[in-house]
Amino acid sequence: MAEPNNNKRDSTDGQSGGTNTAGAVRCDLHICPTCGSDFVFPTDWEPSGSAHWRVSLRCPECEWIGEGVYAQDQLDEYDRILDLGTESLIDDLKVLTRSNMENEISAFARALEVNLIIPDDFVG
Ligand SMILES: [Zn+2]
């Protein structure tokens, strides 16, 4: 039962922490720390504090599972990257489907042209 480092919200008592990365939002939630795949996707999330989310992540390539607390900014960026990934995936699929259909249609048209397909073909 190893509890992950639980970064509770730091008390802002005027003391500025050394590592403030405001401005440069770095998002590598989609990159698997184990195999480097960039298909890591969120499986679960819940609010953690006012501006943070506890996110469970999973890599479909190597079955890596992780969890972390991320700022809203990071997740906005992650969301954008996921959207891009999904769109490119769908684009690939569309191109693939279209070229498959074109192949089939042209093969069918060619078969019709040379009368390879006759009504008998459709009778058991
Ligand atoms: Zn992985």
What structural class results from the helix and strand content? alpha+beta
Low-confidence stretches: 9-23
Oligomer type:
single chain
Mean pLDDT: 78
Number of H/I helices? 1
Q: Outline the biggest β-sheet.
A: 3 strands, antiparallel
What is the terminal-to-terminal distance? 64 Å
Number of strands: 3
- N-to-C SSE series? EEEH
Gyration radius over CA: 25 Å
Strand content: 15-25%
> How would you sum up the global shape?
rod-shaped
Strand order of the largest sheet: 1-2-3
Q: List the ligand species.
A: zinc ion
Classify the helix fraction into a percent range.
Answer: 25-40%
Structural overview:
With 124 residues, the protein is an alpha+beta fold. The chain has a domain at 41-114. 34% of the residues lie in helices and 17% in strands. It is built from one helix and three strands, in the order βββα. A three-stranded antiparallel sheet has the order 1-2-3, with helices on one face. The structure holds zinc ion (ZN).
